[in-house]
UniProtKB/TrEMBL annotation:
InterPro entries linked: DHPS-like_MBL-fold, Metallo-B-lactamas, Metallo-beta-lactamase_dom, RibonucZ/Hydroxyglut_hydro
Stored Pfam families: Lactamase_B
A Gene Ontology molecular function term of the record: transferase activity
CDD domains registered for this protein in UniProt: DHPS-like_MBL-fold
Domain Metallo-beta-lactamase residue range list: 67-301
SUPFAM superfamilies registered for this protein in UniProt: Metallo-hydrolase/oxidoreductase
Origin species: Amycolatopsis carbonis
Taxonomic superkingdom: Bacteria
Protein name: MBL fold metallo-hydrolase
Length: 333
């Protein structure tokens, strides 16, 4: 699975990509299927509930402020499956996987988009489910950075910091890389550290701080942010982000630059445009994405309601709301 040989431009086109959203901020059991997306409705998972006739009720899936996706790529008869982020809590990803009938033992590796706890919290649950299997975890070397939020009028909130020692103790094989990495026999690309080139994507506000060189400092970049890229044969790039702290256009530009493929077919994941600090970024982001004209746009997690409304209006045929349990299936031309 974790094959880093060859340049990123050697990314192998695939015949099919399936992205299953295991955890997102929202679960909506009434969403309808679309051209690329199927939804998890009620009727698959139930629990005991004596107040109902028959003693059971339907439970749907869990939503929490976090993100996790299961990514399956197929070329011919060969298929590879990896996990991209693990959600906020130790239990949500595992619970949703069980309710979806997903066997996490099929996962061949884990990729962490960055170190924030709402993307790494489910590693504990995954370790409990898999036991001491030596599952590889790919992360940027700065994923262990200690961070905090200092918001005026609120208590200082120090974010839970991921521990490399603890992960190794739970049976994970931690692999740290800044540079782009090819996975799954060249069928999946992890961008590595993303170059910041756009004028309008300026990163996190001053309230986001990191412990650097013995002091708390503004951390706008979240330099460990990275994304997952697949080249769908005849269609273009499929880009999956965790939070998109590097800026979604910076990420797409890096994917294009690394692969030599210009066309963006699908963009899925968090775009981090929520909150007042990012309002000025929404319009130029929408305008830049309009030039790329993706066939599928499924922003979730930290994208924010203002950005969601803007994107839904600008991309009426491509935009779909994200939800735990959504499966985006994309096939080659």
């Amino acid at each position: 699975m974790f094959d880093s040989s060859g340049p990123a431009s050697a990314l192998v086109p695939v015949d099919e990509v399936r992205i299953t959203t295991l955890v997102d901020n929202v679960y909506d059991g009434l969403l309808e299927d679309g051209p690329f997306t199927t939804r998890e409705t009620f009727g698959r998972a139930g629990e005991a509930a004596p107040q109902f006739e028959g003693g059971r009720t339907e439970v749907g899936l869990l939503g929490e402020h976090g993100f996790s996706s299961l990514v399956a790529v197929r070329r011919g008869a060969a298929e590879a499956t990896l996990l991209f982020d693990t959600g906020l809590s130790p239990s949500a990803m595992i619970t949703n996987a069980d309710r979806l009938g997903t066997d996490l033992h099929a996962v061949e590796g884990v990729v962490l988009s960055h170190g924030h706890f709402d993307h790494t919290g489910g590693l504990a649950g995954l370790a409990g489910r898999l036991g001491r299997e030596r599952l590889p975890v790919l992360a940027h070397p700065e994923v262990w950075t200690k961070r905090r939020l200092v918001v005026p009028g609120r208590e200082v909130f120090e974010l839970p910091t991921l521990s490399k020692t603890a992960l190794a103790g739970e049976g994970f094989d931690v692999i740290e890389r800044r540079e782009p990495t090819l996975l799954a026999d060249g069928r999946v690309l992890i961008t590595g550290e993303v170059a910041r080139t756009t004028e309008f994507e300026r990163g996190m506000p001053p309230s986001h701080q990191a412990w650097l060189d013995g002091d708390w400092r503004h951390d706008p970049a979240v330099i460990d942010d990275q994304a997952l890229v697949v080249h769908l044969r005849g269609q273009g790039l499929v880009v999956l982000t965790g939070c998109g702290h590097a800026g979604v256009l910076n990420i797409v530009k890096q994917a294009q630059r690394l692969t030599g493929v210009d066309r963006l077919h699908a963009l899925v994941g968090g775009l981090h445009l929520g909150g007042r600090a990012f309002e000025a970024t929404i319009d130029p982001t929408v305008a830049a994405l309009a030039e790329l004209s993706p066939a599928l746009l499924a922003p979730g997690h930290c994208t924010g309601w203002r950005a969601q409304h803007a994107l839904a209006s600008a991309f009426p045929d491509a935009w779909v709301p994200s939800s735990s349990g959504s499966v985006h299936r994309l096939v080659a031309a």
